[in-house]
Design brief:
2 domains, ten-stranded mixed sheet, 14 strands, 32% helix, globular, binds S-adenosyl-L-homocysteine, binds iron/sulfur cluster
């Protein structure tokens, strides 16, 4: 057991609480946040603006716990993927995607995922555990260091190599609410990463009650993984739909938009050949989202061993997008990045131990490779 406090677990309130508990003045919390997150410093001895007594106390009782990197790959297109060891056989992935005018970091919130979407390799692995705040924000902390984007001396700004963060890696962020919330608050905090709400996007498969909580607690840009134009099909593709069907999900999107930093929701839609990609589906979508200001992001399906699914052709994706565009819905087709290093959406396959199924079935289950289930074809 590691008894030291991991300071990466603490957002501004948490850090203020830690300082109060240790008889330190409130401004020390700000200094600590800046040293850790803006300067990327882990060594308390190097935090020169702190009193020596505080540095000594920190060295005795606290740490900035860096996630061990198991692998670090850069794709031909510049996409960089880190596989991070989160202990006990679990690993998660973080992906940096450089583009002309922005750099996006895609981070994970859980080891595995319990939602078990039909087309997602993370879902196929099952759920192991929630990441802590320190493990979620630790991905941004680490990527900033690896990319050389940290400020010097805790005061100046580092180069903003990472301009955007998307919670689109492994896991369902809204099923790991409190740690995700603290990590989001650090992302927005000027003493930490100072990102604008518009540049932080949380992607959810549609955990309706938690969408309402996020709206109240920390509204950032919202992406919703829709993937289907009716409940029968979505029940099969995104099993969470059985609990929170489309009507409730869209109502939650509209409530979220009252407070959102952007005036639209981004709907993600993985294009699956013969399953959800027909003209009829496109027309059904148009009427489904009639009352919800939105954009569509059509995602080419990224295959993985045992998926048992095929992605739609380029032409089909284009034709599908055309139907949405003609109805006045802004639609983009996601460029696949980092495919050669398996860093594309849904390929993030940092091995996890499926503890749910372990507990449920009382036996160690190997990942569901080769499994094939019938999906409501072209419903
Ligand atoms: N759990 C959240 C966030 C992580 S998944 C969610 O589902 O929204 C991030 C995005 O990757 C989602 O839109 C998801 O549907 C998509 N995705 C999952 N598997 C994929 C695959 N095999 N090919 C393309 N996109 C995939
Ligand atoms: Fe979980 Fe998202 Fe994958 Fe669905 S798509 S299994 S919610 S990570």
């Amino acid at each position: 057991m590691n008894a030291r406090t991991n300071l990466l677990d603490l957002d501004a309130d948490g850090m203020a609480g830690w300082c109060a508990e240790h008889g330190e003045k409130a401004f020390r919390a700000t200094q600590l946040l800046r040293w850790i997150h803006r300067s990327g410093v882990a060594d308390f001895g190097a935090m020169t603006t702190l009193a020596r007594s505080l540095r000594e106390r920190l060295a005795d009782t606290a740490e900035v716990r860096e996630l061990p990197v198991s692998s670090d790959h850069t794709s031909d297109d510049g996409t960089r993927k880190w596989l991070l060891d989160v202990g006990a056989g679990d690993a998660v992935e973080t992906v940096f995607i450089p583009e002309a005018r922005r750099g996006t970091l895609c981070i994970s919130t859980q080891a595995g995922c319990a939602v078990n979407c039909r087309f997602c390799s993370t879902g196929k692995q099952g759920f192991s555990r929630n990441l802590t705040t320190g493990e979620i924000i630790g991905q941004l902390w680490l990527a900033n260091r690896k990319l050389g984007a940290v400020a010097k001396g805790g005061e100046e700004d580092g180069e903003r190599v990472i301009s955007n963060v998307v919670l689109m890696g492994m896991g369902e962020p809204l099923l790991n609410y409190q740690p995700t919330l603290s990590a989001l608050r650090l992302m927005l905090d000027d003493n930490a990463y100072g990102l604008s709400r518009r540049r932080v996007t949380l992607s959810t498969s549609g955990v309706v009650p938690m969408m309402d909580r996020l709206r109240d607690d920390c509204p950032v840009a919202l992406a919703v993984s829709l993937h289907a134009s009716n409940d029968a099909l979505r029940d099969e593709l995104v099993p969470l739909n059985r609990k929170y069907p489309l009507r409730e999900l869209l109502a939650a999107c509209n409530r979220y938009l009252d407070r959102a930093p952007r005036d639209f929701v981004t709907f993600e839609y993985v294009m699956l050949d013969g399953i959800n990609d027909g003209d009829g589906h496109a027309r059904e979508l148009v009427s489904l989202v009639r009352d919800t200001p939105c954009k569509f992001n059509l995602i080419p399906f990224n295959g993985f061993p045992g998926a048992g699914l095929k992605g739609s052709s380029r032409d089909r994706i284009r034709a599908f997008g055309e139907t949405l565009l003609q109805a006045g819905i802004v639609t983009t087709i996601r460029k696949t990045r980092g495919d050669d290093i398996d860093a594309a959406c849904g390929q993030l396959a940092g091995a996890v131990r499926d503890r749910t199924r372990l507990a449920e079935r009382g036996t160690r289950i190997v990942p569901l490779v080769g499994e094939r289930r019938t999906v409501g074809a072209g419903a």
